[in-house]
Design a protein that fits this description.
Blueprint lengths: L1 H28 L6 E3 L15 E8 L24 H18 L3 E8 L10 H8 L8 E13 L7 E11 L5 E6 L16 E8 L6 E8 L7 H19 L3 E7 L2 E3 L17 E3 L8 E4 L7 E2 L18 E2 L2 E6 L2 E8 L12 E7 L1
Parallel strand pairs: 2-3, 8-9, 10-11
Antiparallel strand pairs: 1-6, 2-17, 3-5, 4-5, 6-7, 7-8, 9-15, 12-15, 13-14, 16-17
Helix pairs in contact: 2-3
C-alpha cells in the first residue's frame, strides 16, 4: 500500500510539474498587443476614393480555410479538432478565391485568416488569396491585424497546436493609415493565454473630392465567452463609430459580429435546443446616424455541431443557421444593394456578404 501511494504521489507530482511548465511557458509567451498599433499597409494603389462613385465591399469569415461542409467542431458541440487535411484546405481556399473573383469587390474584408498555423497545414492564407484572387482589390493595398497568436494550444486532445491568425483587408483604393485597436478580452488567466485577443482593424481611406475620409472597420467579435465580452467589445466599437461620426467622416464597420441585429427578421431560422446562441445588438442603443444592415434571405453562418452533408440538413427546421455577419453604415453613405452570396457553406461555415454603396 505504501509503495502504491508513493507511486501515485510521484505520478501526481510529475503531472503537476508538466502542467505548471506548460502554463508557465504560455504565460511568458502570451501575445499581449498594445491598445493601439499601427499596421503595415503593403502594396500601392493608384486610385483614390471619390464621392458619387459606386463601391462594392465584401466581408467574409473564411473559417481559417478548414471549416467546409465536411466539418464539425468541438466548441460548437461537434467532435472534430482537426477539421481538414492539407488537400481540403487548398480546395476550400481555391473555392473561396473563385467566389471572390466572381463578385469583384473593390474592398475585401476577411476574418479567421490563418498564417502558418497547424490547424490549416501552415498555409499563409492571406498571401494565398492575394496571389490567386484576380481582382483590383487584392492586387493593390492590404493590411493584416493578428488576433490569435499562440505558439502551442495544448488542448483538447489532439491539441490544436500553433495558431497565427487574424483579420485582413484588401483595397483597390489608397489607404492612408491602418491601425489595430485592442478590444477587451473576456477570459482570465490562465485560459486567457490560449485564447483570441480580439481587435478592430481600422483603415482610413482618403477621398479625392472631400476633406473627409472613409473609416473602414473590419471586425470579428467574441463567440465563446459568456456574452459579456461581446457586450464590452461592442461598446468599444460604438464609441469609435460615434467619434468618427462627430468628425463628419464616412464610416463603415463590417464583419462577423457573432451577434444578430435587433432590426433583422430571423423567423426563418429558429433556434434549435442545444445549439450555440448568438447575442443580440439592440440597434436602438446606437446613434441614429447609423444603419445596421445585412441580408437575411440567406443565412450568413451555419452551426458546426455536425457536418453539412445531406439535403435534409439544408432545411432550417433540421439544421441551425444564423445571420451574424453584417455592416454598420453611416447616413452620409447611400446603400444601393446588399446581398448574401450563397456558397452552400462548401468552403467555410460562413457565407460572404456584399454591399454596394456610394459616398454622398
Amino acid at each position: 500500500m505504501k509503495k502504491f501511494l508513493k507511486c501515485a504521489g510521484i505520478a501526481i507530482f510529475m503531472l503537476a510539474l508538466m502542467l505548471g511548465t506548460v502554463i508557465g511557458f504560455l504565460t511568458v509567451d502570451e501575445y499581449d498587443p498594445q491598445d493601439l498599433e499601427y499596421l503595415m499597409v503593403d502594396g500601392e494603389s493608384k486610385e483614390t476614393l471619390l464621392t458619387g462613385e459606386p463601391i462594392v465591399i465584401m466581408t467574409w469569415n473564411i473559417g481559417y480555410g478548414a471549416l467546409g461542409d465536411n466539418a464539425d467542431f468541438f466548441m460548437d458541440g461537434g467532435k472534430m479538432v482537426g477539421t481538414a487535411d492539407e488537400g481540403r484546405v487548398e480546395y476550400n481556399l481555391n473555392g473561396m478565391t473563385k467566389v471572390i473573383n466572381e463578385q469583384k469587390p473593390d474592398i475585401l474584408m476577411l476574418q479567421e485568416v490563418d498564417r502558418y498555423s497547424t490547424r490549416s497545414h501552415y498555409f499563409d492564407e492571406f498571401e494565398y488569396i492575394r496571389q490567386f484572387a484576380d481582382i483590383d482589390a487584392v492586387s493593390n493595398e492590404r493590411a493584416f491585424a493578428y488576433n490569435y497568436v499562440v505558439s502551442f494550444v495544448p488542448m483538447p486532445i489532439p491539441p490544436i497546436g500553433k495558431v497565427n491568425a487574424g483579420i485582413g483587408v484588401f483595397s483597390k483604393y489608397d489607404v492612408s493609415e491602418c491601425t489595430r485597436v485592442k478590444l477587451p478580452c473576456p477570459f482570465s488567466w490562465p485560459l486567457r493565454t490560449i485564447n483570441l485577443k480580439r481587435c478592430l482593424e481600422v483603415s482610413r481611406l482618403p477621398i479625392s473630392n472631400s476633406d473627409k475620409e472613409l473609416v473602414l472597420i473590419n471586425l470579428h467579435l467574441d463567440a465563446y465567452d459568456d456574452g459579456e465580452g461581446r457586450i464590452e467589445q461592442t461598446k468599444v466599437l460604438k464609441d469609435l463609430l460615434e467619434s468618427e461620426l462627430d468628425k463628419g467622416n464616412y464610416v463603415i464597420a463590417g464583419g462577423d459580429f457573432n451577434q444578430e441585429f435587433s432590426n433583422t427578421d430571423l423567423s426563418a431560422y429558429p433556434l434549435h435546443k442545444g445549439t450555440w446562441e448568438a447575442g443580440v445588438i439592440d440597434v436602438k442603443d446606437f446613434d441614429d446616424r447609423l444603419s445596421f444592415m445585412t441580408d437575411a434571405s440567406i443565412p450568413t453562418c451555419r452551426s458546426l455541431d455536425k457536418p453539412l452533408v445531406s439535403a435534409q440538413d439544408k432545411d432550417p427546421e433540421c439544421f441551425q443557421y444564423y445571420v451574424i455577419d453584417g455592416f454598420i453604415i453611416s447616413d452620409n453613405i447611400e446603400v444601393h444593394d446588399i446581398n448574401t452570396i450563397s456558397t452552400d457553406f462548401v468552403y467555410s461555415d460562413h457565407n460572404p456578404l456584399c454591399v454596394e454603396i456610394t459616398l454622398k
